[in-house]
C-alpha cells in the first residue's frame, strides 16, 4: 500500500483496534500475513517492540 492508504489503516487501528489490509484467497492472505509479521519493529516509534499482529478471517 502507498503512504496515504497505510496512514488511513493506521488511523483505523488506533480508532477501532483493527483494519482490513487485504482481501484475497487464503494462500495470498497467508503470504501477506507473513510480510506483516516479518516487518519487525517500527524504527520510527521508540516504543515499538516488534511487528504488528495480523489475523486471517473469511470475507463477509
Description:
- With 60 residues, the chain is mostly helical.
- The protein has a domain at 21-60.
- 45% of the residues lie in helices and 0% in strands.
- The protein has two helices and no strands.
- The mean pLDDT is 90.
Structural class: mainly alpha
What is the terminal separation in angstroms?
22 Å
Shape field: globular
The beta-strand count equals 0
Low confidence ranges:
none
- Please tally the helical runs, counting DSSP H or I stretches of 4 or more residues: 2
- Averaging pLDDT over every residue, what do you get? 90
Order of helices and strands: HH
Per DSSP, what share of the residues sits in E-state strands of 2 or more residues? under 5%
Radius of gyration equals 12 Å
Sheet having the most strands: none
Identify the notable features of this structure and list them briefly.
0% strand, globular, 60 residues, mainly alpha, 2 helices
Helices, strands, pairings?
Layout (H helix, E strand, L loop, with lengths): L2 H14 L9 H13 L22
Amino acid at each position: 500500500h502507498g503512504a496515504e492508504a497505510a496512514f488511513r489503516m493506521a488511523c483505523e487501528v488506533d480508532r477501532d483496534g483493527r483494519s482490513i489490509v487485504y482481501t484475497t484467497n487464503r494462500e495470498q492472505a497467508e503470504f501477506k500475513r507473513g510480510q506483516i509479521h516479518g516487518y519487525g519493529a517500527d524504527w520510527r516509534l521508540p516504543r515499538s517492540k516488534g511487528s504488528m499482529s495480523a489475523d486471517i478471517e473469511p470475507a463477509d
